Amino acid sequence: MPFLEIDSLAVDYRTGRGAVRAIEDVSFSLDKGETLGLAGESGSGKSTLGLSIMRLVPYPGVIVKGLIKIEETDILKLPEHEMCQIRGRKVAYIFQDPMTSLNPVKKIRAHFAELIRTHDPKTSEKEANERAKTVLKNLGILAERINDYPHQFSGGMRQRIMIGLAIALNPGLVIADEPTTALDVIVQAKILDLLENLRKIYGLALILISHDLSIILERCDKIIVMYAGHMVEYATSTELHRDPRHPYTQGLLRSIPNIELSDQKLSAITGSPPNMLNLPKGCPFWPRCSYAMETCQVNEPSLIDVGGNHLVRCFLYGK
Amino acid sequence: MLFVWQIGEFILSEIVRVENLKKYFPVQKSFLEQLFTRKMSYVKAVDDVTFSIKKREIFTLAGESGCGKTTTGRLIVRLLKPTSGKIYFKGPDITKLEGEKLRLLKRKMQIIFQDPYASLNPRMKLGDAVGHPLEIHGLAKGEEKKKRVLDVLDKVGLTPPEQFINLYPHQLSGGQRQRAALARSIILNPDFIVADEPVSMIDVSLRTTIIDLMLNFRKELGLTYLFITHDLAVAKYISDRIAIMYLGKIIEMGNKERLFLNPMHPYTQALLSAIPVPDPERKRITIELGGEVPSAINIPPGCRFHPRCPNKKDECAIKEPQLIEIEKDHFVACHPS
Description:
The complex is a heterodimer of chains A (319) and B (337). With 319 residues, chain A is α/β, with parallel strands linked by helices. Chain A has one domain: P-loop containing nucleotide triphosphate hydrolases (Rossmann fold, 3-Layer(aba) Sandwich). Chain A contains 10 helices and 12 strands. The radius of gyration of chain A is 21 Å and the shape is globular. Helix content of chain B is 31%, strand content 24%. Chain B is built from 11 helices and 12 strands. Chain B has an 8-stranded mixed beta sheet, with helices on both faces. In chain B, strands 1, 2, 3 and 5 form a 4-stranded antiparallel beta sheet that branches. Chain B is an alpha/beta fold and 337 residues long. Chains A and B meet through helix 7, helix 8, helix 9 and helix 10 of A and helix 8, helix 9 and helix 11 of B.
């Protein structure tokens, strides 16, 4: 039984200029202990997908179709007060910017106390503090620093605290949305190592959202490549690296520099990412695709298994 | 004092030379602190940096945030006044230029900023924004200006340019805006461009187009670049020579092949080991560094890296190491073991 199951999910943003389909037909499942990477450019729907799992898609976003199951419970049918019990306990979210996600006028212990006591009102303040200290210790932060304010920590430390808040209630799934984008490479490597260790220790399922395909390839077991709200490719990271099938994935892989190669020739994908308000008809990628055929401009391709649960949404395959 | 030597078919000579450049920003103190202490404290953003850039070269300053790379770039194009040190551009010392002379100099050196959303005036049509430098310097007006604007827009691939001159920045994507910024920077036919993180805010699939444009302009227009980046993978792709900065100082500098093949400074080694490699089968080992970058107000004595250095020795806490050439075109500031 997978921990998380998503089936043909669709999310709309109902804007003044009409509904924008931010997520279209996304399905996947995730077991505990696994790391899934969501890769894609800005506007591809990766964060919206992450937030839908928490049922926190911001207004005017609406989940219009599909199924999200966490441990067999369909969370889209739950009333809000039961959903509150899922958030934090079963699924936790780590936001991109640790500077804005912590309350600047509250000490670190107050952040932990609020979290722990909201979910478990019987806990005394002392117990909450003790639990906060244990979590901080596991993250490599001195226990006495629970009495400090967020501004007394560096960016990397603040992101550790965010991770601490995320795992404090022992959730089964942690969604990390660009957790290291605001950080320098050395700190980035440390934070990613930390997440990997926590995944091993607590047996977490981890969803890592990043625009940086290098990080995703390096750190994840499975990868979903998103384009214009569509899941265009799904495969294990080794498979995706060895044999990328979708022209968009191939283009992305050709455009990222690899520090270990010399005389690498990079090439860009032609054109620009699409305007979500005005998506092209047919496959959303066809205007930028060098393999575009007539059918691509008219019909939308569906996900096809090209072998071994490697899914591709492209007319070049199947049939 | 021109240095001339030959690489390939080009005769390369020095275009920019920076000597012992320093920039200290005074720290604002509270009223009470002003009453009780006389001593000013400073953020030592750039602390004694020396290097030179050859004609048609792409020289990169790389390092983590706060290492002083952007400040160095802004000092060279004279957007900031150095605290001390000298900057030479095509021979003469430009450190003290003022007024009309400085304005003339700025025709020859331009800067591209990181954020294409902030560097273009939202109320100016693209044609006006890109042609603005021509008006400021009184070089072209009316039809002549329009012709030159169309020409540079075409060069950066904003085609057809007749359409683009009437657009406002909000009608463009991030990649297109950065192309426009690039167009504006070359319209005065400069010799030297400081590119401050020009691709870090652009979607991955479009980065290569901007980098390729920059490389093309070097060939076609004979441009020289100072490229500033935190991304060493991009630095490796684009540059000829790279300098790694830490807390306001260059700690290693050299030809990029040697630097990546044989990094000598422990900081460079840690930095390189932390870069993600887009290959799931390649498991690399990250070199652990203790602590975090100290504040530039209280720079550690001796070697500024010593509190975090995995191979520190006694003398590191006392004596500051100098940049020394350890092989041809490869300099390191580290006490020999």
